[in-house]
């Protein structure tokens, strides 16, 4: 995107961002959000900051990475702003422009998840988790053992990934898509 | 027999194995046919959309384009697959320019998205196509008044759900139709913490604690959910909830399809009830002590 396009325009052009200008700052989203207390800037504030052009502060914050995708704010917003989709858009923009997000390890988990899709066509949950703990904090992995052991004993943890031939399709279409999008 | 294209989703074969097993077990008794989408790939789920929103729509569109070849409604038992596939389906139908770019990319795999099919969640299919009344006629072993808290979670009812997003009732009606007692459950549409249980464990455990505590207040004997992630959190991570808060929650968490399966007289093994971490033995015992009813309708 060229430098002449404002941050607000850029967010408004994302798949769920078109209604951002309709926000009346009522705060229903923040009042509704189960994670508002954990965010650097809760949903209402983030929207105000986007409209104020505070690109750096927004894209380097942990706020959108704390979104649970519970869609409660989306449902309750009286102006149809879709804050949940705006959170996803902000995450994608932060990745696209290489922002280092402090105060969250969620991007690492998401990256492993998507890498798993690219490698196998489907998600290998066990591999995704192992990689996450190795990168973030292997000590924490030990605390996960009781949960992992239960899952394993109940046949719910597959050690080996399952691969699908659709993965080569995925590689082809995503390569073509990048070429088209430039 | 009504036919659908079936999209199991990644977890139906691993961490939520019981979901896949129970759905396949109830298919015949419910008189529906779920034909698995050949060569399906992950819907993309929340992570893909968070890292690369545009590309995630393409990844979902591949599955939609595959399903369009058959032309049947695409049915998934997973709440997350439901939202992600639906979002792509609706977005592409409404955005012609973006759709043509997606189609140029899909052409590299010999596919095309046209927007000809609907994406549906299995409990909605059961509610609308089979109906609670129809379900009642198929019951062979009613639930014997079992007190059930129906946990809808988030993505079954928001943003594309068929039920009231603030106060859904469809699962309660399903429970009542198969002989259970639907207990009031204020937290039925609150978030369990989802995948943030990994990066934000403390916050997510607290959300689970509230949900589990609420089921006890209402005297529920079991909890049901359609969602693989909700089931995993409330069943497996419950160990961590109890450890952190000094609680002793031990309510079994069944998939909607497992509970329906019990009422259809299907054995516990076929319904994957052995994979539930909190033992559902008491639930099975109570249902098995019910009188076996003869089907009133052919």
Keywords:
heterodimer, A: 182 residues, mainly alpha, Fumarate Reductase Iron-sulfur Protein, Chain B, domain 2, globular, B: 298 residues, alpha/beta, Glutathione S-transferase Yfyf (Class Pi), Chain A, domain 2, Rossmann fold, 2 domains, four-stranded parallel sheet, 13 helices, 8 strands
Q: Helices and strands in order, then pairings?
A:
The complex is a heterodimer of chains A (182) and B (298).
Chain A: H1 7-12, H2 28-32, H3 43-51, H4 55-59, H5 72-76, H6 83-96, H7 106-120, H8 125-136, H9 138-143, H10 145-153, H11 166-181
Chain B: E1 2-6, H1 17-27, E2 32-36, H2 45-51, H3 53-68, E3 74-76, H4 79-94, H5 96-106, E4 119-121, H6 122-130, H7 132-138, E5 147-150, H8 170-177, E6 181-182, H9 201-217, E7 222-225, H10 228-235, H11 238-245, E8 253-255, H12 256-263, H13 281-288
Parallel strand pairs in B: 1-2, 1-3, 3-4, 5-6, 5-7, 7-8
Helix pairs in contact in B: 1-12, 2-3, 3-4, 4-5, 6-7, 7-8, 9-11
Amino- and carboxy-terminal Cα gap of chain B: 13 Å
Q: Name the biggest interface.
A: A-B, 66 and 64 residues
| CATH topology descriptor of the largest domain in chain A | Fumarate Reductase Iron-sulfur Protein, Chain B, domain 2
Treating each run of at least 4 consecutive H or I residues as one helix, how many helices of chain B?
13
Note the gap between the termini of chain A: 11 Å
- The total beta strand count of chain B reads 8
> Major beta sheet of chain A, specifics?
none
CATH class of the largest domain in chain B: Alpha Beta
CATH architecture verdict of the largest domain in chain A: Orthogonal Bundle
Textual characterization of the structure:
The complex is a heterodimer of chains A (182) and B (298). Chain A is mainly α and 182 residues long. Helix content of chain A is 56%, strand content 0%. Chain A has 2 domains: 7-96, Alpha-helical ferredoxin (Fumarate Reductase Iron-sulfur Protein, Chain B, domain 2, Orthogonal Bundle), CATH 1.10.1060.10; 106-181, no CATH class. Chain A has helices spanning 7-12, 28-32, 43-51, 55-59, 72-76, 83-96, 106-120, 125-136, 138-143, 145-153, 166-181. In chain A, α7 (106-120) packs across α11. Chain A starts with 6 loop residues before the first helix and ends with a helix. Chain B is 45% helix and 10% strand. In chain B, β5, α8 and β6 form a beta-alpha-beta unit. Chain B is globular, with a radius of gyration of 19 Å. Chain B has 298 residues and is of the alpha/beta class. Chain B has helices spanning 17-27, 45-51, 53-68, 79-94, 96-106, 122-130, 132-138, 170-177, 201-217, 228-235, 238-245, 256-263, 281-288, and strands spanning 2-6, 32-36, 74-76, 119-121, 147-150, 181-182, 222-225, 253-255. In chain B, the strands form 2 sheets. Chain B has a 4-stranded parallel beta sheet. In chain B, strands 6-5-7-8 form a 4-stranded parallel beta sheet, with helices on both faces. Chain B contains 13 helices and 8 strands. The mean pLDDT of chain B is 96.
């Amino acid at each position: 995107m060229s430098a002449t396009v404002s941050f607000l325009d850029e967010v408004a052009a994302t798949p769920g961002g078109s209604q951002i200008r309709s926000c009346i700052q009522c705060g229903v989203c923040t009042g509704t959000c189960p994670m508002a207390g954990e965010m650097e800037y809760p949903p209402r504030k983030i929207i105000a900051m986007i409209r104020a052009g505070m690109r750096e502060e927004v894209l380097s914050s942990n706020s959108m990475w704390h979104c649970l995708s519970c869609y409660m704010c989306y449902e309750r917003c009286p102006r149809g702003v879709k804050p949940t989709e705006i959170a996803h858009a902000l995450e994608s923009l932060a990745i696209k422009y290489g922002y280092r997000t402090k105060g969250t390890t969620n991007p690492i988990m998401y990256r492993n998840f998507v890498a798993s899709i690219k490698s196998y066509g489907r998600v290998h949950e066990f591999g995704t988790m192992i990689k996450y703990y190795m990168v973030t904090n292997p000590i924490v992995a030990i605390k996960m053992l009781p949960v992992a052991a239960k899952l394993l004993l109940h046949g719910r943890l597959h050690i080996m990934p399952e691969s699908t031939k659709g993965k080569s399709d995925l590689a082809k279409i995503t390569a073509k898509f990048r070429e088209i999008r430039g | 027999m009504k036919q659908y294209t079936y999209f199991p989703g990644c977890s139906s074969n691993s961490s939520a194995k019981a979901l896949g097993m129970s759905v396949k077990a109830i298919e015949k008794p419910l008189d529906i046919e779920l034909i698995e989408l050949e060569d399906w790939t992950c819907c993309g789920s929340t992570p893909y959309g968070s890292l690369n929103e545009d590309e995630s729509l393409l990844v979902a569109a591949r599955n939609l384009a595959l399903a369009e070849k058959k032309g049947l409604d695409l049915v998934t038992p997973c709440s997350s697959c439901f939202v992600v596939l639906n979002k792509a389906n609706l977005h592409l139908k409404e955005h012609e320019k973006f759709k043509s770019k997606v189609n140029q990319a899909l052409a590299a795999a010999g596919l095309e998205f046209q927007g000809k099919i609907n994406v549906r969640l299995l409990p909605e299919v059961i509610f609308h196509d089979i109906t609670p009344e129809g379900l009642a006629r198929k019951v062979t072993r009613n639930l014997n008044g079992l007190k059930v808290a129906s946990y809808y979670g988030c993505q079954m009812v928001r943003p594309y759900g068929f039920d009231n997003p603030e106060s859904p009732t469809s699962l309660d009606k399903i429970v009542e139709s198969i002989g259970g007692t639907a207990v009031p459950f204020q937290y039925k549409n609150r978030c369990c913490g989802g995948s943030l249980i990994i990066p934000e464990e403390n916050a997510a455990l607290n959300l689970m604690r509230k949900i589990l505590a609420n089921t006890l207040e209402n005297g529920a004997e079991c909890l049901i959910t359609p969602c693989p992630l909700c089931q995993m959190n409330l069943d497996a991570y419950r160990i961590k909830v109890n450890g952190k808060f000094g609680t002793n929650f031990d309510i079994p968490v069944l998939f909607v399809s497992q509970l329906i399966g019990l009422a259809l007289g299907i054995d516990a093994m076929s319904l994957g009830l052995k994979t539930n971490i909190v033992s559902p033995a008491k639930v099975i015992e109570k249902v098995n002590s019910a009188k076996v009813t003869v089907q009133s309708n052919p």
